[in-house]
Amino acid sequence: MNSKVVETFLLYAVLTCIAVLLLAPFAWLLSTALKAESADLFTFPPQWIPDPIVWDNFAKAWNILPFVRYLLNTFYIAIVTVMINLVLSSMTGFALARMRFAGRQVILYAILATTMVPFQVLLIPLFIVTLKLGLVDSYAGVILPVAVNAFGIFLLRQAFSTIPKDLEEAARIDGCTDFQIFYQIMIPLVKPALATLAAFTFVAQWNDFIWPLIILNNRDLYTLQLGLASLQGVFGVNWRYISAASIVALVPTVIFFLCTQRFFTKGATAGAVKG
């Protein structure tokens, strides 16, 4: 009994230390956002609780640039990307998991092989293709090149693979077509995996900086991350305003995760264990 208590104590101690290490940068970010102009940001040890607390930094960071516009642009790009990714990844994953056709494994391995290629290597080819298609400086140019990826396809393929074949066979006996089986039976059973993929895709698109920076020239189309970067140009390096704007940009991703967290753990482990 004593050894179990010690193990539990050590486990919680390690987890607490990890949590502190992970949360410390966010605490410093919030502390910086609330500090006055006269406060020294880089003193050591850091002053975690500002004195006085200045909420005006949030208002100034919000009003000095068209943050509402940037926020709506980012929402639009992230939501559309999530929808396209869910549709294409679920259809591809279903085909690779449940259908029998020549070259299925070759296609799966080819898709997985793309994960070994860094996105930075693809920047120039993707930009050339986007330029030839006339999609530069448009929402479509930001969304389409990253609308589907190997991770989403593999995640949903594994989720579909865990569903008993008896359900599919019973549906075929009842006269269901492949699309009816996919839409009415399979999709409801893989909702946790869909929620997991949606969360990953939303956060990735919300925080994406490199690709929108390359594609977008019109400031009216800027995403929130490009807006945050432009703050450095407006204020030099005013870390108070940048930190305040970063806190505002962080809130939607936290809300989205909280809305999908009840599916997240189950979906992230879908296909990991087969009975």
Distinctive features:
2 domains, 275 residues, disordered C terminus, MetI-like fold, mainly alpha
CATH homologous superfamily of the largest domain - what is it? MetI-like
Question: Structural class, please?
Answer: mainly alpha
Low-confidence runs (pLDDT<50, min 5 residues)? 267-275
User: Approximately what portion of the residues adopt beta-strand conformation?
Assistant: under 5%
CATH class of the largest domain: Mainly Alpha
N→C terminal distance: 33 Å
Give helix % range.
Answer: over 70%
Computed CA radius of gyration, to the nearest angstrom: 23 Å
What does the largest sheet look like?
A: none
Overall, the morphology is globular
Structure description:
It is a single chain. This protein has 275 residues and is mostly helical. It has two domains: 54 residues, no CATH class; 204 residues, MetI-like fold, CATH 1.10.3720. Helix content is 73%, strand content 0%. Helix 3 packs across helix 7. The protein is globular, with a radius of gyration of 23 Å. It starts with a helix and ends in a 7-residue tail after the last helix.
